[in-house]
């Protein structure tokens, strides 16, 4: 019997996940519902992917999905995560920056424990969480984690780190150096993947994070460097399309339904 899947959000990422169900890549799932804030867009999505359109969480959860995948916003995680977990659904989260609210994160964990449900943190554009946790378990002292992100000057120009002359640089230039916690405090909800990676490794306050503006750069490029007592990791993840975030959700769903799990 197929597992019931429901999606929060009607954008590109949710469309990618829904298409994986429609094409048979997620043959073990039936898409039963989509939750969106815009009734017209939500109905268009639902009509195309043959599921029920919902504009409120109660109607959405009444369909009793076994898995809910969030690909919308941190606000959606904040508003809905406890109700989803309490209703018996597993929750896959992309907007992990919502859990920078530590009280919310702890409440969500408590609700999941009480109701035998799970919170899956999607790897997005970095991934490698199993390796990061392995390195952490291997070390009796905290591991040292540094993440460096390459971004185009055009991307930086739309952030608090823009400065005069940035669009004319000819060499890479560092525009931010701090921690995962600091980047979320300064620029919330954009670097979800950095906060997720920090949760899987050294923690938000200890995970170092750098942003480099790189001329003529496109796409995403993340380098994760880990040093521990008995292990060292140097991971570089490059992607030309942010749909990699949606495919990381597809991977979680596939593992959850498969008799063989790749971690």
Automatic annotation (TrEMBL):
Pfam families: Asp_DH_C, NAD_binding_3. Gene3D superfamilies: Dihydrodipicolinate Reductase, domain 2 (3.30.360.10), NAD(P)-binding Rossmann-like Domain (3.40.50.720). This is Dinucleotide-utilizing enzyme. Residues 169-239 form the Aspartate dehydrogenase domain. Residues 9-121 form the Aspartate/homoserine dehydrogenase NAD-binding domain. InterPro entries: Asp/hSer_DH_NAD-bd, Asp_DH, NAD(P)-bd_dom_sf. It comes from Pseudoalteromonas translucida (strain TAC 125). GO terms for biological process: NAD+ biosynthetic process. GO terms for molecular function: aspartate dehydrogenase [NAD(P)+] activity; NADP binding.
């Amino acid at each position: 019997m197929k597992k019931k899947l429901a999606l929060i959000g009607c954008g590109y990422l949710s469309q990618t996940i829904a298409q994986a169900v429609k094409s048979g890549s997620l043959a073990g799932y039936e898409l039963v519902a989509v939750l969106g804030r815009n009734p017209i867009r939500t109905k268009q999505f639902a009509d195309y992917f043959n599921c029920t359109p919902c504009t409120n969480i109660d109607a959405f959860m009444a369909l009793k999905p076994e898995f809910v995948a969030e690909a919308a916003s941190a606000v959606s995680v904040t508003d809905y995560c406890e109700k989803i977990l309490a209703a018996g659904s597993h929750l896959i989260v992309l907007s992990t920056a919502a859990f920078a609210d530590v009280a919310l994160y702890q409440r969500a964990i408590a609700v999941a424990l009480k109701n035998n449900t799970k919170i899956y943190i999607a790897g997005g554009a970095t991934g490698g969480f199993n390796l990061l946790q392995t390195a952490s378990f291997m070390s009796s002292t905290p591991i040292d984690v540094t993440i460096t992100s390459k971004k185009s000057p055009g991307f930086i120009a739309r952030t608090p780190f823009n400065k005069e002359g940035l669009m004319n640089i000819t060499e890479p230039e560092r525009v931010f150096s701090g921690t995962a916690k600091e980047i979320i405090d300064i620029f919330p909800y954009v670097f979800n993947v950095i906060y997720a990676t920090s949760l899987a490794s050294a923690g938000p306050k200890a995970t170092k994070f750098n942003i480099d503006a790189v001329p003529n750069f496109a796409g995403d490029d993340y380098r994760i460097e880990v040093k521990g007592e008995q292990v060292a990791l140097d991971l570089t993840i490059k992607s030309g399309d942010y749909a990699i975030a949606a495919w990381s959700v597809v991977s979680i769903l596939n593992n959850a339904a498969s008799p063989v799990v790749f971690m």
